[in-house]
Amino acid sequence: MTWRTMTTWVLLVAAIASGWMLWRQRAPETAPAKAQFRPDYVLNDLELIALDDHGREAFTLRAPHLTRDPSAKSMDIQTPLFMIPPSPGKAGTPWAVRSATAWVAPKGDEIRLRGQVKADSQDAQGRPVNITTEELNVFPNTKRATSTAKVAMTQPGFILNGRGLDAQLDAKRIVLQSDVKARYERTAR
C-alpha cells in the first residue's frame, strides 16, 4: 500500500466520522406548532346585550368582528365598543369603553380590553370624564375596572396621570395607584 492510498483512506474515514458527529449534534426536530382553534361561531357587524345573573343588562357590545373559542368558551373581539350601564337604582350615565381588541370571559363577568383603550362617561355634575390607557380589565357585574398600565384621566381643566387604576364605575370613583401627577388647565367659560 502506498502512502497516497493510506492518506486517502485516513481522510475518507475522518470525513465520514466528522459528518456522522455533526449529524448527531444537530438540533432535534421540533414538533409542528399547535394549530389555532377553529371558532364555533363568528359574528360580523354585531350588537349584543349581555345579561347578568339577575336578567339585567350587564353590558351592550357593538363590534365589527367576534369569534368564540369552543374549548374555553371565551370570546375575542376586534375594535369593540362596550356600553356599561349603571347598576339598577343608581343614577348616572353609562360608560362607553373602546379598544383595539377585547377578550370576554365565558360567563361575561370579566372583559380584558387591550390597545388604545378609551373610556368615556360623565361625573355627577354632568362634566365629561375620560380615561385612556393601553389595558383595562372591566368587571361589569360589580361595575369595577382595574389596570396596571399607565393611565390618564381627563376632566375639563384637570388631567391626572399615573400607573395602575382601580375604579368604581357606578360611583365614578377612580383611584390611580402610583406615579400620580396632576395638571390643572384653564377652561373657557
UniProtKB/TrEMBL annotation:
Keywords: Cell inner membrane, Cell membrane, Membrane, Transmembrane, Transmembrane helix. Belongs to the LptC family. Involved in the assembly of lipopolysaccharide (LPS). Required for the translocation of LPS from the inner membrane to the outer membrane. Facilitates the transfer of LPS from the inner membrane to the periplasmic protein LptA. Could be a docking site for LptA. It is a single-pass membrane protein. Signal peptide: none annotated. Transmembrane segments: none annotated. GO terms for biological process: Gram-negative-bacterium-type cell outer membrane assembly. Component of the lipopolysaccharide transport and assembly complex. Interacts with LptA and the LptBFG transporter complex. This is Lipopolysaccharide export system protein LptC. One of its GO terms (cellular component) is plasma membrane. GO terms for molecular function: glycolipid transfer activity; lipopolysaccharide transmembrane transporter activity. InterPro entries: LipoPS_assembly_LptC-rel, LPS_export_LptC, LptC. Pfam families: LptC (PF06835). It is found in: Cell inner membrane.
